[in-house]
Amino acid sequence: MDNAEQKNANEEAPSVIDRYFTRWYRADMKGKACEDHCILQHSNRLCVITLAETHPVLQEGRTVKSINYQISNGCSRLNNKVTGKSKRGGQFVTDFAPLCRITCSDDTQYTIYSCIRGRLLEVNENILKTPNLLLEKPSTEGYIAVILPKFEESKSITENLLRREEFEEIVSKRGQSHPP
């Protein structure tokens, strides 16, 4: 039995996230150190955008003052209305489209990006009422948004993303001191 099997044997069952989603990562989003995003990709193509556990918002002692889905004067992600089986009307987002801005209690601001191209299906309005969900349950109830990539792009959207092992390697290198 390898470590993963042994770990699973000790736990009751893998979480819904670990069971049905593949974790992908985008490290240092837009060149900003440690502003890491996590994309949970379901087998049905849906992608849930969350904060990676290494994101500064989730670091010790931080609290969220506000979350704003108003990206600019003319663009609010809250105005996103999707209808029907084919999910018509959702805003189309590109890899670097801002989804929301999070302001922490120390007034530092972080912009959360879509990380992938696709149609914005929903934003999580629950985190507006209960911002602590973002801190307490970032992969589940504290998610940022749900995006559906185009069918023909669903295989290629992960080309610019990191697998968990690659992401962990980047994170471990951050902790090492750099020689002069």
Automatic annotation (TrEMBL):
Q: What GO MF terms are annotated?
A: actin filament binding; actin monomer binding
Task: Specify the domain of life of the species encoding this protein.
Answer: Eukaryota
Q: Where in the cell is it found?
A: Cell projection, Dendrite; Cell projection, Growth cone; Cell projection, Lamellipodium; Nucleus speckle
- Subcellular location, principal: other
Q: Which GO terms describe its biological process?
A: dendrite morphogenesis; regulation of actin filament polymerization; regulation of filopodium assembly
Which Gene Ontology cellular component annotation is one that this UniProt entry carries?
A: growth cone
Keywords (A to Z) from UniProt: Cell projection, Nucleus
Similarity annotation = Belongs to the ABITRAM family.
Protein name per its UniProtKB record: Protein Abitram
